[in-house]
Structures are given as C-alpha cells and as structure tokens.
C-alpha cells in the first residue's frame, strides 16, 4: 500500500533509545576524529572532532520529524571533515549513515529515498578522494567504505519500511476479512430468520385455516345436523393435533444447540399432494387436480417449493375466497414446470352462518395483511423460478409459478424416483377430478 504524506512520527516512549543512539554516534565521531592515516599513536580528539561530533549528533533527535534536513546537516558535516584536517572514515560519518537509514525508512516515495541516499554517497565519495597524489589500496578501501555505508543503510531502511507496510496491509486485510465474516454472519442470520418465519407461516397458516373452516362448519350445522357436526369436530381435533405436532417438531429443532439429527421423514413434496388435497376437502373446499405432460422428479428444494406454493395458495382460497372449489394445474415442459392455482371466488369470504355476526366480520376486516404472497415469491425466486398472482378478468384469483426442471441427464439417473412420483400424482389426479 503506497501512499503519499509526511514522515512517520517516532514511536511513543522511545526517547531513551534516541538518547542511546545519539550517544553512540557521538562516541564514534570522536573516535573517528583521533584516527590517523599514518597509524600513529592515538591522541586526545582535537577541537575539530568535537565540533563535527556536536553539530552532526545534535540533529539526530529530530531526524524523524525532519529527516531531509537532518540528512543534509550530517552530510555537510562529513564534507567539512577533510578541510578541518581530519581523516574521513566510516566512523566519523556515522551520523550521516544513521540519517540515511532514517530517511529511507520514513519517506514513502522509493525513488526519492534512493536519490537522496545516492547523493550522500556521491558527496562523501568526492570528499574522501584525494585530489593530488596516488591512491593506495588502503585509501581506496577507506573511500569505498565511506561511500558504501550510506548505501547499505538506505537499503536496510527500505527493507524495514517495506516490511512494515506489508504487515500493515496484512493486518488491514485481516480486519476487513473479520468485518466481512461478521457481515456475512449477520446476513445469514437474517436469511435464517426469514426462512424460519416462512416455514412457520406455511405450517401455522395451513393448519389454522383448516381448523377455522372445520369449526365454522361445525357451528353452522350444530343444530340441524348433529352427526355432521360430530364429524367436523373430530376432523378439527385431528387438524389441531397435526398442527401441534408440526409446531413441536419445528420449535424443538430450533432449540437444539448442536447439529440437528436427521429428520424422521423427508421434506414434503409433490408426492404428498394427494394428502394435502384431501385435508382441504375435509375442510369443505373441493379441489381438482389436472396434469399436463410427463411428470419428472424434482430436486428437493424445488419439490418443497412447489408443495408449499400449492399449500399456501389453497390456504388463501380457504381464507379469502367466496367459493367452495379450486383448481390446481401442473404443466410439465422440457425445462420447467408451471403450477397454477385458480378459484372463482369474488373477494373476502363471508361466514356461512348468522352466529358469526358483525363482530366477526369486523374482526376479519381488522386483521393485518399476511405474508403468504411474499413468502411464495421468495420461495420461487430462491430456486430460480418466478411467481405471479392477481385477480382474473373473469373473476376469482390466480396464482401461477414457473419452477426450473433438472436436465434430461439428471432425470435419467433418477428414473425410479420419477416413476414413483408420477404414480402418486396420477392417484391424486384421479381422486381430485370431479
């Protein structure tokens, strides 16, 4: 990650380290000031050595805030070493080496860092090369060391800078990945909540609607036909019992802390369509089933979606339509199955008995709108299909959905399942057609 900006500030609590670096550089400068080229005995540092050491080391503590200025001062001090009668050696230019490292570490632009370090090395190389006389091997090695030390310091500074930038990028990437995981977890939780709400709606709405219809029939026939009333009440007990079992199983699954065990029975699909139709017939709704084309096995998700859409559409007919019949049509094509549920009703269903008077009608009118159509559309979209619903021009309501079918190769692999499904659908069609 390359950015532009000023130098990096020094880390907090590092003043003791700055003091140690400054003291070490001061000692090296004084030691370099007493070194002689002829190898004579060491003597106390001259005043020029103290001057070079004091001036060049005084700017070291500010090299993080003004690295370019500190580097210029230390380089200028190195250039003054030969005119002051001292030997230009790697020891006496130690402050220039330190500032070269700091500048390479702080500056963001790699080209600027390389240019500045090369300029220091070139200046010190020119200052350490004698203008007159032959250059011995000893002088050549000393000159090469004086020029090479700033270059080595610059390379080390850039290496540390790149390493820090790499670690910062890795940390930022890890932080973004953590935030992405959190957002993904929140999204999955929201999707799971919608899925659970949709599943509970399908279970409760279907069973409670049937129970309401059966209770309405029992109340209507209570005085005139006691035997029929007793039959309706018996069916009501069975319906409410099934609703309790479904709710108990669903809530029990949600309360499990570990992995859920395998379900006792497979998820409902079109193979259970005859049983579903029979439950609506017991509630007083005559349902006819018509099939076109050859039925094929569906993937589990699509099969469950088709079943739930038929269930919810028939539940809406029972709750809202003023009719006692509905038609279910399944049209099998090459790449999709079209499912339509239609009725000839004319609006909100009214109570068939005087016992449900104005209070019941107002209660039904005050109910908030449900989520049946929304859930059906979400289910169809989730498996790659689409759903449309609306009033028919000739009266009534129509729900139509198109769901994708597996390829012919996949259908061939599951021939047995297709045969079983076709047989069960055929039975439902024969029993449902009036």
Task: Describe the protein in words.
The chain is an alpha+beta fold. Helix content is 61%, strand content 9%. It contains 13 helices and five strands. It has helices at 15-34, 47-58, 67-79, 94-106, 110-128, 137-220, 226-255, 273-282, 300-320, 358-366, 372-382, 408-413, 415-432, and strands at 286-292, 325-332, 336-343, 386-391, 397-404. Strands 1-2-3-5-4 form a five-stranded mixed beta sheet. Helix 6 (137-220) runs antiparallel to helix 7. The radius of gyration is 44 Å and the shape is rod-shaped.
Number of helices: 13
Roughly what percent helix? 55-70%
Q: Helices and strands, in N-to-C order?
A: HHHHHHHHEHEEHHEEHH
Mean pLDDT: 75
Shape: rod-shaped
The first-to-last residue Cα distance is 74 Å
Largest sheet: 5 strands, mixed
- What does the radius of gyration come to? 44 Å
Structural class: alpha+beta
Q: What is the total tally of β strands?
A: 5
- The low-confidence parts are 1-7, 348-369, 414-434
- Strand fraction: 5-15%
| Strand ordering within the main sheet | 1-2-3-5-4
């Amino acid at each position: 990650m390359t950015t532009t900006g000023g130098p990096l500030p020094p880390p907090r609590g590092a003043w003791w380290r700055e003091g140690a670096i400054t003291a070490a550089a001061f000692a090296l400068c004084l030691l370099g000031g007493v070194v002689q080229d002829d190898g004579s005995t060491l003597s106390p540092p001259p005043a020029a050595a103290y001057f070079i050491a004091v001036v060049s080391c005084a700017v070291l503590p500010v090299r993080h805030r003004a690295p370019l200025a500190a580097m210029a001062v230390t380089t200028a001090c190195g250039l003054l070493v030969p005119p002051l009668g001292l030997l230009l050696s790697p020891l006496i230019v130690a402050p220039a080496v330190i500032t070269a490292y700091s500048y390479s570490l702080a500056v963001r632009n790699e080209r600027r860092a390389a240019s500045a370090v090369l300029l220091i090395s070139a200046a010190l190389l020119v200052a350490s090369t004698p203008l007159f006389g032959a250059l011995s091997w000893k002088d050549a090695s000393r000159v090469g060391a004086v020029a090479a030390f700033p270059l080595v310091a610059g390379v080390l500074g850039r290496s540390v800078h790149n390493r820090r930038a790499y670690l910062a990028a890795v940390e930022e990437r890890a932080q973004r990945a953590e935030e992405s995981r959190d957002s993904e977890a929140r999204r999955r939780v929201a999707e799971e909540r919608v899925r659970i709400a949709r599943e509970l709606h399908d279970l409760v709405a279907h069973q409670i609607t049937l129970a309401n219809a059966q209770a309405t029939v029992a109340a209507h026939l209570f005085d005139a036909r006691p035997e029929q009333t007793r039959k309706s009440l018996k069916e009501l007990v069975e319906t409410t019992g099934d609703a309790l079992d479904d709710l108990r199983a669903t809530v029990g699954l949600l309360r499990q802390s570990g992995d859920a065990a395998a379900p006792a029975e497979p998820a409902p699909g079109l193979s259970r369509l005859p049983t579903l139709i029979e439950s609506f017939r017991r509630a007083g709704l005559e349902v006819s089933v018509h099939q076109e084309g050859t039925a094929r096995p569906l993937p589990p998700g699509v099969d469950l979606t088709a079943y739930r859409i038929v269930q919810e559409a028939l539940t809406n007919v029972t709750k809202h339509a003023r009719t006692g019949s509905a038609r279910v049509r399944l049209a099998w094509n090459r790449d999709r199955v079209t499912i339509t549920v239609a009725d000839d009703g004319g609006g909100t269903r009214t109570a068939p008995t005087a016992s449900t008077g104005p209070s019941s009608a107002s209660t039904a009118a005050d109910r908030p709108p449900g989520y049946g159509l929304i859930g059906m559309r979400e289910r169809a979209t989730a498996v790659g299909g689409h759903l449309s619903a609306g009033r028919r021009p000739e009266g009534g309501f129509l729900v139509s959905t198109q769901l994708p079918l597996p390829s012919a190769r996949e259908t061939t692999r599951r021939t047995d399942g297709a045969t079983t499904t076709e047989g069960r659908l055929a039975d439902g069609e024969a029993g449902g057609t009036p």
